Amino acid sequence: xxxxxxxxxxxxxxxxxxxxxxxxxxxxxGKYYMNDDSLVIEKIKSLxxxxxxxxxxxxxxxxxxxxxxxxxxxxxFVPHKNYANDTPHSPGLPQTNHYDNGVLQADAMIQQILExxxxxxxxxxxxxxxxxxxxxxxxxxxxxxHANNVFxxxxxxxxxxxxxxxxxxxxxxxNNLFSQIDIAPTILHDLKVPKPKNWLGQAIQTxxxxxxxxxxxxxxxxxxxxxYSLEKPNETWKYWINTNTRDEYAFNLSADPKESHNLVWQIxxxxxxxxxxxxxxxxxxx
Length: 286
Known about the structure:
Number of helices: 6
Largest sheet: 4 strands, antiparallel
Low-confidence stretches: none
Mean pLDDT: 90
Shape: globular
Oligomer: single chain
Strand content: 15-25%
Strand order of the largest sheet: 8-9-10-11
Helix content: 10-25%
Number of strands: 11
Distance between the termini: 27 Å
Order of helices and strands: EHEHEHEEEHEHEEEEH
């Protein structure tokens, strides 16, 4: 594991990762600010060439993060301003530019990482997965950052999977709405390794929808708990409840992708009660 950011002290994340062969994060990079992704690049360049034995390498970048160090060569979008300590109440160009500059920097970092890994033969027969743990609110619904709401700007994340040996990409089925719990089964499916029976996620290459009941994709950012409903063909609904206030939300994402109109009171009472019960039933207690 080669990780930008301090995973050793931040909520003791390192303990959750378990035993690994080799571990390195920003708290161990003496000459770098712990959230500078340059430390990831340097560490990769220090690795020995691949020894032809199967292995897994997990990397983490901070470039697009609110605390990540921004390098001057990627300040393309101006004016820009970090919103870490001065959060406005509505979307603003400086804050959006700040985030977009971080995305631009992250792209460049990924390119440098792939080039360094290729030089050391790690990509000779590799499956490369690029994804994220969350999106980022930039004031679209009055929220900035993440972990404070479940609107789609926070929930949607990229997922790219490529075979570097032959240049092919992941062949997923028509449904393109998946959960993060589907990523690990997807990798195992590609490696022809059986999925553990207690995993709820599904490989996205299969015909089976990646959900517990095959028609819903569940999510929770405490205290918000809910799901995407795929029950109607060509129509995706999203429902959640704030378990603290009991407020309910329902959006027809097919007709209202920006989640501008809460239609919960238009949902038949029987359906709404069933959705509420499902949300509470899948809630993870913290």
